[in-house]
Amino acid sequence: MLKQLLRELWRRDRIALLLYLLTFVVMSYPFVTRMHSHLPMDNVDTHQALWQNWWVLEALRQGLDVNYTPYLFHPEGLDYTLQPPRWTGLVFWTPLYILFGDPFAFNMTAAIGILLRAYGMYLFGMLIFGRRIPAWVCGAFYAFAGANLTHALQQPFTGASEWIPWFMLAFVCGLMQIRFRASARYILWAMLAAAFLFSLNVYANLKIGIFAMLLGGGFALLYMIVHRLWTLRIFWKSMIIFGLASIAICAPSLLPMIRSEDLFAATSDPVIADVWGGMDLLTYLKADHDRPLNYMGSIASLSGDQVEHSFVTWGLSHVGLVSIFFAFAGLVYAIRVERPVLIWFLLALVFWLLSLGVVIYMHKSPLDFYWTPYRLLEDNFIFRALKWPFRMALVFLFPYAVLIGYGLHYRLRSLVLNRKRQALVIVSVIALLYGTSIFPIPTRNAPRPPYLSYLAELPEGAVIDVPFGRHVSKYYMSVQRFHGRPIAEGMIARVPPGTYDYINQNPLLAIFRDPGKLNYEDLSLENWEAAFKQLLDDGFRYLVMHREVPVSSFIGRAKGWALEMFKIEPKLYDDNNVIIYDLADINAENVLSRAKRLLAD
After folding, report:
1. What is the C-alpha to C-alpha distance for residues 38 and 20, in angstroms, rounded to an integer?
2. pTM of the model
3. Rounded to 5 degrees, what angle do the CA atoms 283, 285, 424 make?
4. How many other β-carbons are positioned within 10 Å of the β-carbon of residue 510?
5. What is d(CA 399, CA 343) in angstroms, rounded to the nearest whole number?
């Protein structure tokens, strides 16, 4: 039966799938031509995602606990419970990695997710529109909208939302069956399918699960009110079945996080209003008409076969002017033809307002008078788990894409498509997608500098990578895949309290993190030598001084004083990128005297 269903779907949708593939090639150019050798865009979380995939396989291979890694913040290790692996992505990544390695496996996993998102939204559109063209456009806009595409390619922890349309497909189908008094057996199976597909979002990432919960919960509430489903006993039974099934399926992922001692600390920080608490009203419009490929605050240009760019500003979610026209047509359809469609307008409006955050900006300046619903919710546990308000734009894009589909459906329902009208539809769709496009997609070489081969061949020992810092440490995590040694630092979105205690109490490590933290003028030679001995006793062996770390637009360099401290010490390796020292060969007294002199200056 399943085989027959898949065969029928292929016959019906093969052209739609082919068009999605072609659209992906265009919208992701030139990244799509370099998937075997380059990584997309420049966000440091790409490095962390590469490491996470490697760590899960390493943990399974060694029989270690996936929720705790001894490879970061050596020798204490790092509690990784609140950073659950993207299990759904690993399903695709693992065989691709075994066959082809990274970066192809990483890039192809992202591409599969984008196409799954497009096709899932297409099927959802077929359910509610019953027409292929609006359904296809709805899926294309949702999959290739700038924010969704950007997150999928360079921030997979937040961008793995490909299962949200599939969840909504089953969930809305179940609610529709309740409304039309379908058989209880069909309703039950629809809700069980919805629970399973909802759990895939949770297993992708907790933030994605929250997105799905907010979207599905918001729709169910409005749908229940509009169609008076609260009067039906089967509705409440179905919601209970869906809830219990979802909890049971998600339990293996959620229970470790709920039990974590760090959960409260991880979700206790309020939204930082002056940094991440607001979004410019104009970020939803594609601006700078003189430079049509200027997107997301980034200057992008094609130079030969290389794409160069300056800086990507997070939080921007271009939808374009053409999409506003289609969405407005969808609103007109809701008012004139089918009032329940207003549900999607209300959802889009609410999530858009939430995405604006705590402070609303206009031309990067706060408005004098405004109100945003996020102020009522910023202390809520769920919204603190999301951390940054602009992430709500990813939820907003779903009902907004549905409105676009309804707008096209409204324009086409009374038209006979002759050649001129077909051409007009095609041009309109191209303009719609161009309005949210972020191509050309910047790419960069996958990080594997030559010193890694040398480091991998050295005797056992943990590594101290310098400089320290949030962004560079994610790069160190990425290259750890090649040398396989524990490192002194690491990074996750919410570092548990006490993680830096070991670093802060050791003078040598503390100076790399914050030179002003200790008074090195008063530091005795005895304590300094004890610090070196502690590092050696705890398994540290190699100091890797990076002259420059190629991470994002945050260029990390070993400070001049740090290079000078070890300048005359014997080197194991020296090239344009790094200098490698053996801690056992370093003269602690000489280093201390130079440190005091340099830091005094």
Report:
1. 22
2. 0.90
3. 155
4. 20
5. 9
CA distances from 470 to 78, 115, 222, 434, 485 (A): 15, 32, 42, 35, 19
Model confidence band, residue 519 (pLDDT cutoffs 50, 70, 90): low
Which residues lie below 8 Å from residue 90, measured CB to CB, with a gap of 6+? 53, 56
Q: In whole angstroms, give the CA distance from residue 222 to residue 343.
A: 6
Burial category of 259 from C-beta neighbours within 10 Å (exposed 0-12, middle 13-18, buried 19 and up)? exposed
Using CA atoms, how far apart are residues 175 and 182, in angstroms rounded to an integer? 10
Query: What count of other Cβ atoms lies within 10 Å of the Cβ of residue 100?
Result: 14
Tokens representing 270 are: 């309020």
- Compute and round to an integer the Cα radius of gyration of the chain: 26
Residue type, 431: A
On average, the pLDDT of the chain sits at 85
Q: Is 60 exceeded by the pLDDT of residue 302?
A: no
Tokens of residue 551, six digits: 């991470």
Q: Residue 122 and residue 134: Cα distance in Å, rounded?
A: 9
* Helix, coil or strand: residue 342: helix
Q: What pLDDT does residue 259 have?
A: 84
pLDDT at residue 277, rounded to an integer = 67
Residue 146, phi then psi, degrees to nearest 5: -50, -45
In DSSP terms, 445 is beta-bridged to 38
Query: Is 137 exposed, middle or buried, given 0-12, 13-18 or 19+ CB atoms closer than 10 A?
Result: buried
Question: For the chain, how long is the longest CA-to-CA vector?
Answer: 88
Minimal CA–CA distance to 146: which of 182, 179, 114? 114
Q: How far is 90 from 84, CA to CA, in rounded Å?
A: 12
Residue 38 to residue 445: CA distance in whole angstroms: 5
What is the helix (H) or strand (E) element at residue 409, kind and residue range? helix 392-412
**Contacts for 173-179 with beta carbons within 8 Å, 24 or more apart?**
173/127, 174/238, 174/242, 175/219, 175/220, 175/223, 175/229, 176/127, 178/229, 178/232, 178/234, 178/235, 178/238, 179/223, 179/227, 179/229
Dihedral of the alpha carbons of 247, 251, 254, 258, in degrees to the nearest 10: 90
Q: How far apart are CA 489 and CA 513, in angstroms?
A: 10
Per DSSP, 230 falls in state G
Angle between helices 132-144 and 2-27 (to 10 degrees): 50
Closest CA to 206 of 51, 88, 91: 88
Q: Are the C-beta atoms of 471 and 44 separated by less than 8 Å?
A: yes
Q: How far apart are the first and last CA of the chain?
A: 78
Angle at 172 between CA 159 and CA 134, to 5 degrees: 70
The DSSP H or E segment spanning 461 is none
By CB neighbour count within 10 A (0-12 exposed, 13-18 middle, 19+ buried), where does 135 fall? Answer: buried
For the beta sheet containing 462-466, the strands, ordered from the edge strand earlier in sequence to the opposite edge, are: 462-466, 540-546, 578-582, 573-574
Select from 406, 319, 339, 342 the least CA-distant residue to 133: 406
Q: State the burial class of residue 392 (Cβ atoms within 10 Å of its Cβ: 0-12, 13-18, 19+).
A: buried
What is the pLDDT, as a whole number, of residue 336? 93
Q: In degrees to the nearest 10, what's the CA dihedral of 119, 383, 314, 466?
A: -110
**Predicted pLDDT of residue 312:** 37
Token pair of 57, please?
């396989």
pLDDT digits (tens, 9 = 90+) for 79-127: 988 887 888 889 999 999 999 998 999 999 999 999 999 999 999 999 9
Query: CA-to-CA distance for 84 and 150, rounded, in angstroms?
Result: 21
Length of the chain measured in residues: 601
Contact 302, 414 (CB under 8 A): no
